[in-house]
Design goal:
Layout: H1 2-8, H2 18-24, H3 28-35, E1 46-59, E2 62-74, E3 79-87, H4 90-103, E4 106-107, E5 119-123, E6 126-132, E7 139-140, H5 143-150, E8 157-163, H6 167-179, H7 197-206
Parallel strand pairs: 7-8
Antiparallel strand pairs: 1-2, 2-3, 3-4, 5-6, 6-8
Length: 207
C-alpha cells in the first residue's frame, strides 16, 4: 500500500502547471495584469444632469415623444458651461447636452473663493442676482443656481432667483451673471459700464 501512495503522488503534480497556461489564454491572470497597468485617470470635467423633461411633438401619425436634458459641466477651476439638447432616449439626450455644454464652456472671474462683485442678469422671465460673500459663508443658493455654482470652484456666494421658475431660463441667467463678472485688476481700466441686461431687454422690446 505504501508503494501505491508514492507512485500516485507524482500524478497530481502537473495540476499547478496548467494555471499559467490558462492565464496566457486570457484568464484571470491577464485581468489582474490589466488592473495593475495603472490607475484610471480622473475626469477633467464634472458633469451634472440638472433636469430631464419628456417633450412631445404632434406629427401626422400622432405624437412623437422625446427627452430634453439640461446639463452643466465644470472643472471647479473657474470653467463652466451649460447645454440643452433633445434625444430619442434619456442617454442620448444627456450625451448631446453634455457635448453642447463642453463646446460653450467659458472661464469666469473669481476673487479668492467668491465672485469679485455683484451681478444681476435677466434671461427671458428668469432673473438671477449674485453677490460676493465673506469667507465661511458658503453657497447661499438653491436648485439650479446652487448646482451650477458648485462646479465652478466658488465656495462663498449669496444669490437670489426671481421671476420665472423655468430651470433652463434660470440656468442661462446664472451663466450670464457669471460671464458678466469683471476681475478686480480690470475695474479701473474698464472703458464704459455695460448696460444691465434688463435694460437691454426693455430696449429690444420697444423696437
Amino acid at each position: 500500500m505504501a508503494d501505491i501512495i508514492e507512485t500516485a503522488a507524482p500524478a497530481a503534480a502537473p495540476a499547478p502547471v496548467s494555471s499559467p497556461n490558462r492565464g496566457q489564454g486570457g484568464g484571470q491572470n491577464n485581468r489582474g495584469n490589466r488592473r495593475d497597468q495603472g490607475p484610471v485617470e480622473p475626469k477633467q470635467f464634472e458633469e451634472i444632469v440638472i433636469n430631464i423633461d419628456r417633450v412631445s411633438r404632434v406629427v401626422k401619425g400622432g405624437r412623437r415623444f422625446r427627452f430634453k436634458a439640461l446639463v452643466v459641466v465644470g472643472d471647479r477651476k473657474a470653467k463652466v458651461g451649460v447645454g440643452v439638447a433633445k434625444g430619442a432616449d434619456v442617454q442620448a439626450a444627456v450625451q448631446k447636452a453634455t457635448d453642447v455644454a463642453k463646446k460653450h464652456m467659458m472661464t469666469i472671474a473669481i476673487d479668492g473663493d467668491s465672485v469679485p462683485h455683484e451681478s444681476e442678469v435677466r434671461f427671458s422671465g428668469a432673473q438671477v442676482l449674485l453677490k460676493p460673500a465673506a469667507p465661511g459663508t458658503g453657497i447661499i443658493a438653491g436648485g439650479v443656481v446652487r448646482t451650477i455654482i458648485g462646479v465652478t470652484g466658488i465656495r462663498n456666494l449669496l444669490s437670489k432667483s426671481l421671476g420665472s421658475t423655468n430651470k433652463v431660463n434660470i440656468a442661462y441667467a446664472t451663466v450670464g451673471a457669471l460671464a458678466s463678472m469683471v476681475p478686480k485688476d480690470e475695474w479701473l481700466n474698464a472703458p464704459v459700464k455695460k448696460t444691465p441686461a434688463k435694460k437691454v431687454a426693455a430696449v429690444e422690446e420697444t423696437k
